[in-house]
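Blinded run. Sample ID left blank on purpose so nobody reads anything into the name before looking at the predicted structure. Input follows.
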Amino acid sequence: MIYTNNKLITILGPTASGKTTFATHLACHLKNAEIISADSRQIYKGMDIGTGKDLSDYTINDTQVSYHLIDIREAGDKYTLFDYQHDFHAAYQDILSREKTPILCGGTGLYIESVLEGYHLPDVPPNTELRESLEEKSLEELTYILSQYKKLHNSTDTDTKKRAIRAIEIADFLSKQEATTCEYPPIESIIIGINIDRETRREKISIRLKNRLDEGMIDEVKRLIDNGVHPDDLIYYGLEYKFVTQHVLGQLSFEEMRSQLEIAIHQFAKRQMTWFRGMERRGFTIHWIDAGLSMEEKMKQAYFIINQKNRTFAPQKTKTNDQRNISH
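Blinded prediction complete.
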């Protein structure tokens, strides 16, 4: 028997590690569990093939596993970490209120850590006038402007014009007034990571990319654009949507798109693992399970980890308010 005490279980891992399949099987075995997605792009409707939104994974032996935070926003919407925290806690409290076990599953490390750690995030409203004044500036000019507000530690703030403009918008707002912050407490969680060796991961990524292209990923991007999603918004989402959109716009040949995208996904998976290792250095205990094991063996290891942790469950590491305050 497995005792969950309705504590949060977190399943994480890099892309192509099989974490979603593992999480849905675990939820099915627990019988009273529901999954909360921690994927920054699966929230969008119509972005299915490129995000690997395999909803069939949520049906195990004719049993439907309930899921949350998938298909909750229209493609093209801007969705912030602040939004995710709010939506996560709404789903989390709903699951607990029905005496079920929440399973947080995904590969977006920032989303996962923000809810486990209890980040304090500012709610910064859009500034249309400022955005319009910045729209014609180059990425280099925007990077310089942002550097006048703060020391640049996060390169993702300036990897596209849209991200740079939003970062300037936040920095400008915070320089003039206090933002409304949303404060949530840290959450106790058993954390299980799916560990896949580098060569197997690379092979799976390459095979999966070919399959997604064969399944119609290019047509999916064309359909999103035809339905009114601006190409810049798709490029903003990165990876598949960035490179396929550039191909659809005629900026990249098919082979250039495929090759550059494959490299980018490999780099992304490496960054995911770097984030998870960073979480361990920051005090989180991640119990790693080998992705190559059979599902039966993975379940056995998961049961052991969960039962052991629930016998002597200790709160996750906490930080002071100053340490948890993070701008977004």
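Unblinding after everyone has recorded impressions. Residues 122-180 form one domain.
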